[in-house]
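User: I'm putting together notes for a lab meeting next week and I want to include a structural view of one of the chains we've been expressing. I don't have a solved structure, so I'd like a prediction I can at least talk through. The sequence is below, exactly as it appears in our construct file.
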Amino acid sequence: MPGLTIEAIDPKGTVSQDDAWNAVTARYTTNFDEATSIEAYLGEVTDDSMELVKQPMWVFVASGITFEGSRPIREDGTPVSREPYTVAYIYVYAITGEVLTVCLN
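Assistant: Thanks for the context. Below is the predicted structure for the 105-residue chain, given as structure tokens.
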């Protein structure tokens, strides 16, 4: 994702990958089982789009999903058509295990 950098950090003092992922699946009902891959990265995250600067995060990248998401509505009440999202970037604060956000692409 443009504007996203992840610098590796020592996992000491952070929640485990399993605990972070369990927090994700507890919060979101989206079925991530259909993902063709789920990659996990632990590091200091800088993301220009979210104004994060060197924050300790677990970032999960779920690829191969199909998520329609919301769509703008035209004046006549019909939704604008577009392709579904296929990648989710899920941010979990590595110190507390709190799920911060999901960015769809």
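A couple of points you could mention at the meeting. The CA atoms of residues 3 and 50 lie 9 Å apart. Helices lie at 17-27.

User: Perfect, that's what I needed.
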